[in-house]
Amino acid sequence: MDVKFNPLILLVAIAVLMFSRCADYTGKIIYVNSKASVGGNGTTWDSAFNSLQEALDTVGRGDEIWVASGIYKPSRKTGGEDDRNKTFHLKKGVALYGGFSGKETVLDQRNWQDNKVILSGDLNGDDDGFANNIENCFHVVTGNKTDETAVFDGFIITAGNADADVWPDDGGGGMNNHEGSPTVRNCTFIGNAAFADGGGMRNWGKCTSMISNCTFIRNRAEQEGGGMMNGPGSSPVVTNCIFMGNSTGEDGGGIYNNESHPIITNCLFRGNSVDLTGGGMYNVNGSTTRVINCTFSRNSADKAGGGMSNLRSNPILTNCILWDDAAPADPEIHNTDSDPAVTNSNIGGGYKGSGNIDADPLFADKDLRLSAESPCVDAGDNTTLPEDVKTDLDNSIRISNDIVDLGAYEFKKIDD
Q1: Using CA atoms, how far apart are residues 103 and 33, in angstroms rounded to an integer?
Q2: How far is CA 276 from the centre of its chain?
């Protein structure tokens, strides 16, 4: 029997498929303001939700949540019945934006630096540094099973305490991304803690998060990765971020990379500390970390590798500065069964590799920007800079004089 082609049936099938994929796409803006009255529906600033969780409960793919300044605490439990399992869980296709005053009509009007939106895991409101935090949420924010369409932008994440001695509540106090890859921008992770790894953030498994313009400050892990821990299988892209004052009881004060392959560009590692090795960064178990145009200074380790320590790993460093880090052995770079490729970098005490120098970088200020006399100006290799990186840590033009400068900052000339 001959079967004739019916174009109408094909069109109907295509329409059904498209409808099924778009049925949950609404594309609306939902408003949240902690100072709003109870009972709002989130459709305008005047009728905003006063709970971020209420907004998350109502969103669909394509929606945006705009959050006004204030303090917000998780209220929905994920992964357990204890109150400590409360977390803000991100969703695919949903963008969360913080930094609003409560009057804006377009996204560009927000100011996330001035209008601070704080997501806090301190359920009792009684923290004193890392004291009195035994009741705090294990993870303030969770990005498990998400992808790049889950956008998280303009928040302060604090007081997470992943202090359990069991997975997954042993790491990722500020944010835990297991098999998830949210897009994280313009966020500050401060004062979060973990027992095992990732006081500020933990990325694990198939995690390819884009993390940019973020600050990790004074986070703590009892074992590894005070600021960030990138676990087996992860390969996040970390750009224009600051790691400062983070600490661990073992290794990797700023970042700990274990069987992971991150790309880290235009980042500053300053004043991080560890009880063992790798004050700024620790790479272990075959991690092929790429470190491009980063500055390490004033980090410390009680054993070795104040700036960086590598164990069975061969990271690639280009256009970097490692200077004035402290440790009893190998204060800048410590290697065990490792042979990192270091080129076009300024390493205190010197280091083998093409284009490397050993000279005082002549920093201009405490933030480790370069002075006009710095030997790091116009000393890098342009070909190693990722094509999509067009600005430095200050969001100034990267490569201002034909040749890229070393470190996280491009020197700003007077006529710029």
Answers
A1: 11
A2: 23
pLDDT tens for 30-86 read: 999 999 999 999 999 999 999 999 999 999 999 999 999 999 999 999 988 999 999
Read off the pLDDT of residues 350-372 as tens digits, 9 standing for 90 and up: 999 999 999 999 999 999 999 99
Round to whole Å and give the CA distance between 49 and 58: 11
CA dist., res. 121 & res. 161, Å (int)? 8
CA 114 to chain centre: 20
Rounded distance, CA 311 to CA 177, Å? 24
Which CATH code fits 26-384? 2.160.20.10
Q: What is the CA radius of gyration of the chain?
A: 23
The angle subtended at Cα 77 by Cα 72 and Cα 80, nearest 5°, is: 145
Residue count of the chain: 416
Single-letter amino acid, residue 258:
N
Residue 82: CB partners within 8 Å, gap ≥ 6? none
The answer to whether 193 touches 161, Cβ cutoff 8 Å, is yes
CB 259 within 8 A of CB 230: no
Q: Which two tokens stand for residue 165?
A: 């001695």
Q: What angle do CA 397, 402, 408 make, to 5 degrees?
A: 45
Bridge partners of residue 65, in order along the sequence: 30, 96
* Tokens at 15, concatenated: 């329409």
